[in-house]
Write a structure and sequence with these properties.
mainly alpha; 6 helices; 0% strand; elongated
């Protein structure tokens, strides 16, 4: 039932939630990556960094450094499907 309503598995939903929150914290807070990792449910920064990089395709450090260039639109609207992202990119470049 959850998968039908949310259009993703509970595990994917949790991952999306954690990564969106982590990205938001990286941009808006001065907290360390370790502190942010713990606050979104990871026990250590290495595991968090690997998951973050898999989700955003960049490390948390690079994400934070490049926060001002709006490059990481997934923070606002995470997309797990590349074709959806490409469709969105085409609409925003008009």
């Amino acid at each position: 039932m959850f998968t039908t309503m949310a259009n993703m598995s509970p595990q994917e939903f949790l991952m999306n939630f954690r990564m969106k929150r982590a990205g938001d914290l990286l941009i808006k807070s001065p907290n360390t990556i370790t502190t942010i990792a713990i606050s979104v449910g990871y026990r250590d920064s290495l595991t968090f960094s690997k998951a973050f990089k898999k989700f955003y395709s960049v490390s948390p450090t690079i994400f934070r450094e490049e926060k001002g260039n709006n490059k990481y639109e997934r923070l606002v609207s995470p997309q797990r499907n590349d074709s959806s992202k490409q469709s969105h990119d085409k609409n925003t470049n008009k």
